[in-house]
Amino acid sequence: MTEAQDERVADLERRFRQGDPRALARALTLVESGHPWGQALLKRLRGQGQAKVVGITGSPGAGKSTLTDRLILEARKRGERVGVLAVDPSSPFTGGAILGDRIRMMRHHQDPGVFIRSMASRGALGGLAGATVAALSLLEAFGFQRIFVETVGVGQSEVDIARVADTTLLVLTPAAGDAVQAFKAGVMEIADIFAVNKFDLPGGERLIQELKGALELSPPRPGGWRPPIYPTVAATGEGVEALFEGLEAHHRHLKEHGLLEAHRLERTRFEVESVIQEWGRRRTQAAEDLVARVARGELTPEEAAWSLLRPEA
């Protein structure tokens, strides 16, 4: 960077450290776009702060946004500053977010203790944007004590949230086929806590019993944690306080068994892998001739990948 550019980054960092939310929003934009200024700022700020990171996942329509809204209220009652990263589906053609509306959380838009940011998944199969971990680092450095990451809700492939969050909350609903989805390999194993939302609908008790039966057959969790199941009605707030206490109990479990540091290392590993994946995608898009040679059988995919990833002379 030039001296003038370095000064602008330093000014942004100064305003960030002073608690200017506009500086936070600007920093998030720079990081999400991969701008060099964002990377320089992130390098200076990374590792500051220790937030409780809760990943909220589940099928579309399970009421994740409404439940997140209620959990924000519980956190604010306890005096916590709250950050929210809402990862929206994005168009596979334009990369733009398809949803992007956080209407259910609009009650918090004037609360200085709450910051909500939508991010586009940009086609990430795990339901997370590649810049999610970098954004988490910025929110931690800004002083948020709890961060909720609400993911796209794409089903079985959404296991990446467990690599990013300290606590993973899986939201299911009765009479929606969620029990079948939850029993698929990979989905039951990622959840530290289950919420059966819209419990006032028929089939709530049956879903809880099915989940209990499935959990008895699942492998033991680190430190002997047994995932609890909480019935909730997010629309009215019923059961949300008990759910929040469950999140607190899991965080205490992680601390007591020395598991938090391993979580943070895995989060960083996920971030590095995401950068590599994005580099590979961009290089492949720019290598039409190479892709055509694979299609003609002149190269194997492995040979093409090696030529793309090989350090340039």
UniProtKB/TrEMBL annotation:
InterPro entries: GTPase/Isobutyryl-CoA_mutase, GTPase_ArgK, P-loop_NTPase
UniProt-listed Pfam families: MeaB (PF03308)
Listed Gene3D superfamilies: 1.20.5.170, P-loop containing nucleotide triphosphate hydrolases
CDD domains: MMAA-like (cd03114)
An example Gene Ontology molecular-function term: kinase activity
Source species, domain of life: Bacteria
Keywords assigned by UniProt, alphabetized: Chaperone, GTP-binding, Hydrolase, Kinase, Nucleotide-binding, Transferase
Homology family: Belongs to the SIMIBI class G3E GTPase family. ArgK/MeaB subfamily.
PANTHER family per record: LAO_AO TRANSPORT SYSTEM ATPASE, LYSINE/ARGININE/ORNITHINE TRANSPORT SYSTEM KINASE
Protein name stated in the entry: Periplasmic protein kinase ArgK and related GTPases of G3E family
Lineage: Bacteria, Thermotogati, Deinococcota, Deinococci, Thermales
